[in-house]
Specification:
single chain; about 280 residues; alpha/beta; TIM Barrel; 2 domains; two-stranded antiparallel ribbon; 8 helices; disordered N terminus; Glyco_hydro_fam25_subgr
Length: about 280
């Protein structure tokens, strides 16, 4: 009988380990996407818009956030401005004038001129000259020191500032007692105001903080324009009977052309009423 030969078992070739062509193509495509600058641009844009939405999602429609200014601004006012001193350094007024965020722009500026009976703000002359060139309506202010003679402070202010047609009325900034009694402060302030009004024919604006006004000034200077400081609120918390003209509602605004934060203000009226307030 023929002898059956035993067949040797055929060893199956092991498939070589590795990645299939299809998987390789997918990986290459993903790599190209991930390395693309367009991908990261999209991600960054999406992330920024999402953060912006999350940041402002709870905004009060009457007190919205303005990202370029870095603050919230009461919606009902149409005339806005700033006030500056040496603290803001050298200002590019043209850039200030050109800034506009959804209709909010700087239309006026109060500029510090003097303090007490000896101090002239070192940037006053430059600011007083350059801001009007850029088309910004200006007014000068004096920082009042109740310990000093109100009359002498008024003389010092007018030696420094020429109040001209088209300017905002001059401002007296009174926000502290400096160790004197409220009655003494009011008496010196009256002397200051009388002298300014007599020499210029213009009623000066009184600037003060809300608490200082309520504690020491309310009912004593009702015939004069009032500028109140009261920060981070949707509404100025003051009696409706109080006739105020300006509201300094923030001290942390970012404005193009200014290297440091600055106070932001709203005028209590429209552009026609604003023009009516100017020196004629």
């Amino acid at each position: 009988m023929p002898v059956k030969r035993k067949r040797k078992p055929v060893k199956k070739k092991k498939s070589k380990g590795g990645i299939s062509l299809q998987v390789k193509m997918v990986l290459v495509a993903l790599s190209l996407i991930l390395l693309s600058p367009f991908y990261y641009g999209y991600i960054l844009k999406f992330g920024a818009s999402t953060w912006g939405w999350l940041k402002f999602w709870d905004d009060d429609p009457d007190y919205p956030s303005y990202e370029s200014y870095g603050i919230k601004i009461p919606k009902k006012y149409s005339v806005h401005g700033i006030d500056v001193s040496y603290y803001q350094g050298k200002i590019d007024w043209q850039k200030v004038k050109e800034m506009n965020d959804d209709g909010v722009k700087v239309s006026f500026a109060f500029i510090k001129a003097t303090e007490g009976v000896m101090l002239v703000d070192r940037y006053f002359q430059r600011n007083w000259r350059e801001a009007p060139k850029a088309g910004i309506v200006c007014g000068a202010y004096h920082f009042f020191r109740p310990k000093k003679s109100g009359r002498w402070q008024a003389k010092f202010f007018l030696q420094t500032v020429d109040v001209e047609k088209g300017d905002l009325p001059p401002v007296v900034d009174v926000e502290e007692l400096n160790g004197v009694s409220p009655s003494r402060m009011r008496e010196e302030l009256k002397e200051y105001i009388r002298y300014i009004e007599k020499k210029t024919g213009v009623k000066p604006i009184i600037y003060t903080g809300l608490s200082f006004y309520k504690d020491y000034l309310a009912g004593h200077f009702d015939g004069y324009p009032l500028w109140i400081a009261h920060y981070y609120k949707a509404k100025l918390s003051i009696s409706e009977k109080t006739r105020w003209h300006f509201w300094q509602h923030s001290d942390k605004a970012k404005v193009n052309g200014i290297s440091y934060i600055v106070d932001f203000n709203a005028f209590n009226g429209d552009s026609t009423e604003f023009k009516a307030l100017l020196v004629d």
